[in-house]
Protein: Alanine--tRNA ligase
Organism: Marilutibacter penaei
Amino acid sequence: MSTSAHPSTQQIRSDFLEFFREKQHTIVPSAPLVPANDPTLLFTNSGMVQFKNVFLGSEKPGYVRAADVQRCLRAGGKHNDLDQVGYTARHHTFFEMLGNWSFGDYFKVEAIEWAWELLTGVWKLDPQRLLVTVYHTDDEAHAIWKDRIGVPEDRIVRIGDNKGAPFASDNFWQMADTGPCGPSTEIFYDHGPDIPGGPPGSPDEDGDRFIEIWNLVFMQFDRQPDGTLLPLPAPCVDTGMGLERVAAILQGKHGNYEIDLFQFLIAEAARLTGTSDLSNKSLRVIADHIRACAFLIIDGVLPSNEGRGYVLRRIIRRALRHGWMLGQKQPFFHHMTGSLVQAMGEAYPELAGKQDFIERALRAEEERFAETLDAGMRMFDEVAARSRGAIAGEEAFRLYDTYGFPVDLTADIARERGLDVDMAGFEAAMEAQREAARAAGKFGGGISLPAELAAQLPATRFLGYTGLAADGLQVLA
Ligand code: ATP
Ligand code: MG
Ligand code: MG
Ligand code: MG
C-alpha cells in the first residue's frame, strides 16, 4: 500500500488491486477495447462489458468476486466524450476504469463500506470533501451511507431519473430496455469553491468543482418487456472508478491532465511540437489522443473510412490538427509512442511489444493527411471568414470529400472560432453524393469513391503496408 504523500498512477493501480485481492477478489486482466462478443457495441466503455454474459447468466466465470483495471474508450457510440477533451478537467477519450464486482455474492453494504474504506482509510481522502448520490427511491443505500458510514444527510443527494438532459446525473443503470438493471450510488470529490460548478443534481453540476470519482451499480432487478421490475434471484454489484480522476486527487491536483502520467506525455508533446507553454490545451488533446490511438491499434483497429477504423482516423486527424496549430507541420504524432510505452508499458506489456507496429500505422496516416491538411485549413479559413453563425453543410462536405476532414474535426475547429456546423446540411450533401454514386452504378458508370480516397488509392498500396499486413491485421484503404 502507498505510504508516500503522492502515490504514482502505477502505485494507485496496484493499491486498488491489492485492496480487493485481500477481500477475496479474483484479479482479472483488462479486456481489449474491441469487445470480443458484442458486435452491437463499438468499444469497451466500462469495466462491466467483459462480464455482460455473466450478468445475463449465460456464462459462469468460476469466481463470484472480481476486480480489474479496464482500459476504456468513450469516443463513439452511446458514450462519446471526444468533444469534452480539452474542455473539462476530467474527461478523456481513453481512460482506465478501476472496478470491483460481485456476481450474486456481496451486495450494497460491503460495496459501500469497502469503497469508503479504500478512499478514506487507505488513501486518506478527507471525508468532508466527499459527497454521495443515491437513486431517489433507494432508501437502503441512503441508510447505509447515513447510519453505517456516518455521512451527514446534507451530503447525500437523492437523484431522480435522467430526463435525457446531456449532463444530468443518472442514478439508474440498465443494460438494455429489458434485463438486469438497478440503482446506483456515486461518490464525488469537492475540489473547492474556487472552481466553478455545483453539486450533483444542481443546474450547474457539469462544472469541474464536484468531480465524480466512483460509480457503484446495484443490479437487483430484471426488467420485463411490459416494464415491470422483478427482483433478480442473485443481485450483483458493478463498480467503476476513473483512475486518472482519483490520481489527480491523490497527487494534490485538480485536473486529470496534471497527474504524473499526463505531465510526462504533455512534456513530450511540447518537445515534439516546439511548444513552451505546457498548459496549452492542444498538448492535452495530443496526450489524450495518443493513448486512444495506440491502444486501438494494439487491439486490432487500423485507420479506415468506416466503423471503428473511422473513429481511429478521426482521433488521429484531430491530434494532427492540434499539432499543426502548434506549428508542427511535419509528422510528429507517431513519435509520441515511445513515451507512451515508457509511461504505461509496465501496466500494459503488450504496448511495448507493438511499439514499432503502432508507429508505422500512425506514420502512414500522418503522411496521408499531411497531403491535404494544409490546403484544407486554408479552405476552412476562407469559409469561416464568410460564415455567419454556422459553416454551411456543403462546405463541411467539401472539406470532408476533398481534404479528408471528418465532419467532427470541422466542428471542432469551428467551435474554437465560435461557429457551428450545419450537420443536417452535411448529411444531405453526403446523401446526394451516395445517390449520385448509386445512379452512376446503375448506368454502368462503376462505383465512385470519395475524391479523397480515389486520389490516394495508389498510396494505400505502398510497401509500408507489407510489414503491417505481416502482423496479421487487416489493412484497410
Ligand atoms: P461523468 O458524469 O463525469 O461524465 P460518467 O457518469 O459518465 O462520468 P460512469 O459511466 O459512471 O461515468 O463511469 C464510471 C467512472 O469512470 C466515473 O465515475 C469516472 O470516474 C470515470 N470516467 C467516466 N468517463 C470518463 C472519461 N471520459 N474520462 C475519464 N474518466 C471517466
Ligand atoms: Mg459521462
Ligand atoms: Mg456522471
Ligand atoms: Mg457515473
